[in-house]
Amino acid sequence: MLRIGLTGGIGSGKSTVARIFRLLGVPVYDADGATKRLYATHAGLQAALKEHFGADIYIGQELDRAKLAALVFGDPEKLALLNSLAHPPTIADAEAWMARQRAPYVIKEAALLFESGSAAGLDHIIGVSAPQHIRLQRAMQRDGATREAIQDRMRRQIDEGIKMRLCDFVVHNDEQQFLIPQVIALHQRILQLAAR
């Protein structure tokens, strides 16, 4: 079974591409969704977050994500600390999930695939690329955030051009090329690789 990474910058449309792969019957692990689940269920992660960000970061079992965001998004050191605490349990969860799957290939969807170090354990990486102005507009509409807030988040991710050069395959979600045919062609190609 091949282990395929799927990544892209904010607003690139990687979640849309992941949905197309799911419709094709490919198991997809959503790392962002898994991290949110682990914030509520992983005792070690909860303890670490309380230790570093204060016990009031949780309301019962629920992480106060607005409070955490306010603490980390203006402070690169605190954001790096949060990532260093959250990435290991998420990577372990993904490994366990992949071991349970029975398919020619599986996909791990993660915005910070390279930044977290989890790309190293994958066979191939798919990048979803879109021009910055389109990514910015999509993210502003989706998140209801300001241009400045989205640009700040973009600056904290690996440069789009560098990220795409690190990928084995690139899907172009630029509103110029049809997305579904690209994903279907890539699906067929990966099935061929998996059959070797």
TrEMBL record:
Catalytic activity: 3'-dephospho-CoA + ATP = ADP + CoA + H(+)
Molecular function GO terms recorded: kinase activity
EC numbers: 2.7.1.24
CDD domains attached to this UniProt entry: DPCK (cd02022)
Subcellular location: Cytoplasm
Transcription keyword on record: no
Residues annotated as binding ATP: 11-16
Gene3D superfamilies: P-loop containing nucleotide triphosphate hydrolases
Pathway: Cofactor biosynthesis; coenzyme A biosynthesis; CoA from (R)-pantothenate: step 5/5
UniProt keywords, alphabetically: ATP-binding, Coenzyme A biosynthesis, Cytoplasm, Kinase, Nucleotide-binding, Transferase
InterPro entries in UniProt: Depp_CoAkinase (IPR001977), P-loop_NTPase (IPR027417)
Keyword NADP part of the UniProt annotation: no
PROSITE patterns given in the database record: DPCK
Enzyme class at the top of the EC tree: transferase
HAMAP family, A to Z: Dephospho_CoA_kinase
Function: Catalyzes the phosphorylation of the 3'-hydroxyl group of dephosphocoenzyme A to form coenzyme A.
Family (UniProt): Belongs to the CoaE family.
NCBIfam families: dephospho-CoA kinase (TIGR00152)
Protein name, entry field: Dephospho-CoA kinase
Organism: Flaviaesturariibacter amylovorans
